[in-house]
Specification:
InterPro entries: FUR, Fur_C, WH-like_DNA-bd_sf, WH_DNA-bd_sf. Keywords: Cytoplasm, DNA-binding, Iron, Metal-binding, Repressor, Transcription, Transcription regulation, Zinc. The protein is an alpha+beta fold. It contains 6 helices and 5 strands; from the N terminus they run H-H-H-H-E-E-E-E-H-E-H. A 3-stranded mixed sheet has the order 4-3-5, with no helix packed on it. A two-stranded antiparallel sheet has the order 1-2. Helix 2 crosses helix 4.
C-alpha cells in the first residue's frame, strides 16, 4: 500500500522550505506540486500540462518543465526515470538519497530512505574516482494489494 501524502502539510512545508532558502514558490509551482501530490503513481509532464491548461489557458510546456525543474531542485518531487513521470516527495526535509518501489500493476510509488545503500554506493564511487551528481534507484515489482488481487483470481 502506498504512503498517502498529506498534501496540505506538504504544501506548508514546501512554502516554509522555499521561504527559508529564499526562492519563490509561485502559484504555478504550487499548483504543479499539488497535482503531483494528488497522483499516487506520479504524473508525466504532458499530463500535468493538460491539467494545468484547464486552469491556466496560457500554460505551455516550458511552464511545466520550469516548474518541475524547480520542484526537483528543491527536493519536493522526484523524477521516476523508468516512467518519465514525477512523484511528490513525502519528506522533502530528508537530505539524503532515496529509493523508489514502483508497482507494475497499479503504478503506486513508495519512497524508501535506506541511507546505508546510498552511503555504500557513494563510497565505492569515490574509491573508483567517480563523483556522483545524481543517483536514482528504482525497484519495479508488485505491491501487496495487487499481489492479493492476482492470488484471488
Amino acid at each position: 500500500m502506498a504512503t498517502m501524502i498529506d498534501t496540505r502539510g506538504l504544501m506548508q512545508q514546501a512554502e516554509a522550505q522555499c521561504q527559508q532558502r529564499g526562492v519563490r514558490f509561485t502559484p504555478i509551482r504550487r499548483r504543479v506540486l499539488e497535482m503531483i501530490a494528488g497522483a499516487p503513481g506520479g504524473l508525466k509532464a504532458y499530463d500535468l500540462l493538460d491539467r494545468l491548461t484547464t486552469e491556466h489557458a496560457a500554460a505551455r510546456p516550458p511552464t511545466v518543465y520550469r516548474a518541475l525543474e524547480f520542484l526537483s531542485d528543491q527536493g519536493l518531487v522526484h523524477r521516476i526515470e523508468s516512467l518519465n513521470a514525477y512523484v511528490a516527495c513525502p519528506c522533502p526535509e530528508h537530505a539524503h538519497g532515496f529509493q523508489l518501489l514502483i508497482c507494475r500493476q497499479c503504478g503506486r510509488v513508495e519512497e524508501l530512505h535506506l541511507d546505508e545503500i546510498n552511503d555504500r554506493l557513494s563510497h565505492r564511487a569515490r574509491e573508483l574516482g567517480f563523483r556522483v551528481d545524481r543517483q536514482t534507484i528504482e525497484l519495479l515489482g508488485y505491491c501487496d494489494a495487487c499481489l492479493q488481487v492476482a492470488n484471488e483470481a
